[in-house]
Amino acid sequence: MKLQNNTYHIQNIPVENLAKEFGTPLYVYDTEVIKEHLDRFREGFSSVDLRVKYACKALTNMSVMKFLLKQGTGLDTVSLPEIQMGLTVGFQPNDIVFTPNCVDFSEIEQAVEMGVKINIENLSNLEKFGQKYNGSVPVCIRLNPQIAAQANSEKVDWWHKQSKFGISLDQIDDIKALEKKYDLTIDGIHIHSSSVIMSPEIFISGAKAVFNIAMRFEKLAFIDFGGGIKVDVGDGNEVIDVIELGKQLDQEFSVFCEKYGRKLELWFEPGRYLVGNAGYLITTCVVRKRNGGTEFLGVDSGFNQLIRPMMYGAYHEIHNASNANGALKKYTVVGNICEIDNFAIDRMLPETKEGDIVIFKSAGAYGYSMASTYNSRFRPPEVMVEGGQARLVRRRDNYEDLVKNQILVG
Question: How far is C-alpha 100 from the chain's CA centre?
């Protein structure tokens, strides 16, 4: 998004024009930003056999998925419907990896039938997998390397030993026993990179631990470092330098491959890194009010459409598209849900009046995908801007959508 002639543009289209054409609230995705982030990621890991699997749980719009397919990515999925969407879009089954968490084994069986790559994260399902398939279907195992996070986060602390994700390191011998018992073909080791690990040095220390584990498995074709790598959202917090990380990890991975005896593929599953900064939630200021000493700016959206600020305390830059260079004032920006619904507290923004267009940046990941119809409000439409053209890629919900699965009795 660029400020040109006092007006914010997404590619060459003024944001106010998008709001006028499609209405607000509205999600907009900029494909140029998606490609920029993908290119930067690939630049960072340019000297290894890199495979990028887009973690579509971040944003499951099928048009966005198709755009990433055209850019040559694979797909990381966590549910059967995500697999089905990927196949519908055109991804080949062998380019899709299925990494569910705490699911019934029947889901894994269905995923095998679909032909996708299976990633298992608990011993129970790994044993069931061995009992059913022996070594006839290769499997990846998801490990928890029990590395303490660099930054504390109560809700998202993937590498911590108390995390529910992955098979614990103290169960490696159990994995090896199952491998031998069922002649399993374990061809991949997976861990999840963490958004709370900010420096390449901390990441590399974790990678070395994974490489040591990988030496115990003889049939590997790839090491998968998952997703979770953050991008700069404008909050001033540290983010990991992907270019520097790539330089260091490429070197360590090459050393590992030489020691292992053959070259393996290096997989990553970025989601938010690719689409987070490419998305915008476009809203309208509908209420200005003062309570005590607080100046409230109310918009026509809420945490039912962008839950991250309330759920995680996530930061989103906010801009006034109607008065981009106005005098700054302090606002608490709130939504229209009938409970505390803060997007930002005491934020300095250009003076805003009712009717102004208000933009929330970095809303591409876990925005629409976590949206709900709470308060019986409709989910917003989605628009994708590609090649300077804005196209509707999901219509706004209507009343029929809201009640179509209800059965009225009595």
Answer: 15
CATH number of the domain bearing residue 220: 3.20.20.10
Last residue of some domain: 237, 270, 303?
A: 270
* Rounded CA separation 22/396 (Å): 9
Q: Which residues are catalytic?
A: 338
Provide the edge-to-edge strand list for the sheet that holds 13-14.
Answer: 2-4, 7-10, 13-14
When pLDDT is cut at 50, 70 and 90, the band that residue 207 belongs to is confident
Return the structure tokens found at 144.
Answer: 């928890």
Rounded CA-CA distance 178/126 in Å is: 8
> Which pLDDT value is given to residue 85?
98
Same domain, 159 and 182: yes
Query: Number of folded domains in the chain?
Result: 2
Burial class of residue 169 in the structure, from the number of CB atoms within 10 Å of its CB (0-12 exposed, 13-18 middle, 19+ buried): middle
Q: pLDDT-based confidence at 159, cuts 50/70/90? A: very low
Residue 373 lies in a domain: yes
The string over 44-74, giving b where at least 16 C-beta atoms fall within 10 Å of a residue's C-beta and e elsewhere, is bbeebebbbbbbbbbbbbbbbbbbbbebebb
Instruction: Give residues with Cβ within 8 angstroms of 282, minimum separation 6.
Output: 15, 18, 19, 24, 25, 26, 27, 28, 321, 357, 358, 359, 360
In a domain, 234, yes or no: yes
Domain boundary pick from 243, 270, 297: 270
Summarize pLDDT for 233-257 with one digit per residue, the tens. Answer: 999 888 888 999 999 999 999 999 9
Asked whether residue 197 falls in the same domain as residue 240, the answer is yes
Between CA 42 and CA 132 the distance in angstroms is 38
Residue 155 pLDDT exceeds 60: no
Identify the domain containing residue 166 by its residue range. Answer: 60-270
